[in-house]
Amino acid sequence: MKFTDTRTGKPTDLAFSDVVVKGIAPTKGLFVPTELPPITHDELLALAELPYWQQAATIYRLFGVDFDDEQIDTIMQQAYGEQWDDEQVAPITTLDGNTHVLELYRGPTSAFKDMALQCMPLFLSASLEKLRAAGLHDNDLLMLVATSGDTGKAALDGFADRVHTNIIVFYPEEGVSDLQKAQMTTQTGDNVAVFGVRGNFDDCQNAVKATFADDQFNQWLDHDPDLALSSANSINWGRLMPQIVYYLSATARLMRDGKLGEGQLLDVAVPTGNFGNILAAWYAKQMGAPIGRLICASNSNNVLTDFIKTGTYDIAERPFFETPSPSMDILISSNLERLLYHLAGAEKTVAWMTDLKEKGAFTVDEATLETLQSEFWAGWRSDDESLDQIRRSWKKHHYLVDPHTAVGIDVAADAAGDNPVLVVSTAHWSKFAPSVLRALTKTSFSDPLPEPYVDHSDFEALDDVVALAPDASPVPESIDALRGSEVRFDKVIDATPTDIEDAVRSWVLTRKN
Ligand SMILES: *Cc1c(COP(=O)(O)O)cnc(C)c1O
Q: Which atom of ligand 1 lies closest to the CA of 105?
């Protein structure tokens, strides 16, 4: 498997293990596979007969990743093992004849990030071992992650106790729910740390970014504790590969079960933020999976809806909204660059990325827009509209969904054509219990919750929802267990690079001794 840099369009001689360690190209471009391996109808059908870990191993082998079979098997068994609460890892629930939901939240942190982050850190550790054995890399990695919620916990869980890696997560004190905070501050593992940061997510992210750019600090890390900073963020190819797997797996299972007929295409609806999840569906389609339209669902941060409808991506004058689906509150969808490269080539991609940086906007040419619209369809939903859909899914199908998934279901209903639709569910409802409580009590976001719910904490809201919807899918054990878990990390720091660096330095030095 070889990789091309989206900013040069030239194939590199890097292998899978190299791009997983590097994350991003020196040009600041993203790595994309130079060629995608095709998958035949029969190969796809055969997948459905395998346990999930073997499906994943099969796809990685098809891509020709630079690990031997045994190593791939060992990693996949570990990544997709007992920590999932369903044997199928990503089970499919059929709502009505034509609408199916792919549940990507059955992992240890109850959000879809687990699909990639239970797998990628294992390949990263193995890649570092490989480079080490060849004398090409001697530092351990230190991941610094600024998170608005879901990613931080999923990354902590994925990297905890993985060799050659350490992880420190910074979360905005004001920006995460009590439940998300409890998920992070109770994290176990010797190579992890968590800090609250005063301010909002932007303050937190900017301070962490400045730390990455501080040469002196990076030199200190490199020379003394032998560490190199890394971000393991969602543009790493190692995080996209596991996402391609579940689309191939899902189409295979629907075909096997007769829910996707011979010659039929499956539309896929994805609640989208950074464009990683939906891009993985596009890759699966290019490989030969019978996928039709890709339905890109957004909340009121609807920059992607406008882009797909008009060809102009414009964040210059766009307000940023905090919505009940915070993991989709994103204005710069980093993975879009990969799609632009595949549709239009490196030269145009570089020009558009430059426009975005300098003017806050870019417009693609007619031909690119036409191809884009032939494959993608887009829509968005307001906060209250997504609550409405939570309530309707519950009433009509007795199926309780979180606010991200609700946006996906609602937009998919609008897009409905003749094809069966697979809606991707990205979080368990319990992670967003206060919003679900609003939905079930018909309380708009502009009103306070009625008695007796007013002023209830996240955990009380969880109990309230269970009381109102006792036969909804049960609260995952790991979420329930948070109530009694010991808080390991209670430090809160200021949102400055100096405070971030001090926090990192003291943690690193304490660990060394
Ligand atoms: C990360 C996330 C998304 C957005 O996925 P992208 O790959 O960034 O488009 C949607 N829903 C939930 C719950 C998430 O955690």
A: 13
